[in-house]
Amino acid sequence: MVTNVHIFFEMQPTKSLSEIIRIVKANSSKWINDNKFVLGKFSWQEGYGGFSYSRSQRNNVIQYIMKQEEHHKIKTFREEYLELLKIFEIDFDEQYIFEFYE
């Protein structure tokens, strides 16, 4: 099963996104494995994408996240992710983009 997760949170400027993601991945992996929600051992793929929005966009972002099931009927996660990189004008090299399993 392939899943992508959207997490929306307010972040203090003194915290690093990489540290927050490390903690989320570690704790959620432990919880999933302790509760045996998947066969075998669950682990997150390396990497993540982080995009920031202004507080005024809060409701738009929440609505976007809540409609993911609808979005993925139209475009794949890969298409969506690459589109976000372009919208945010983030330069990237395909060799450093994490693997997509559709």
Termini separation comes to 9 Å
Which class of secondary structure composition applies to the elements?
A: mainly alpha
What is the number of domains? 2
Largest sheet: none
Task: Name the features.
102 residues; mainly alpha; 2 domains; 4 helices
Notes on the protein architecture:
The protein is mainly α and 102 residues long. It folds into two domains: 13-44; 54-102, no CATH class. The mean pLDDT is 87. It has helices at residues 17-34, 58-66, 68-74, 77-87. It is built from four helices and no strands.
Layout of helices and strands, plus pairs?
Blueprint: H1 17-34, H2 58-66, H3 68-74, H4 77-87
Short summary of the structure?
This protein has 102 residues and is mostly helical. 44% of the residues lie in helices and 0% in strands.
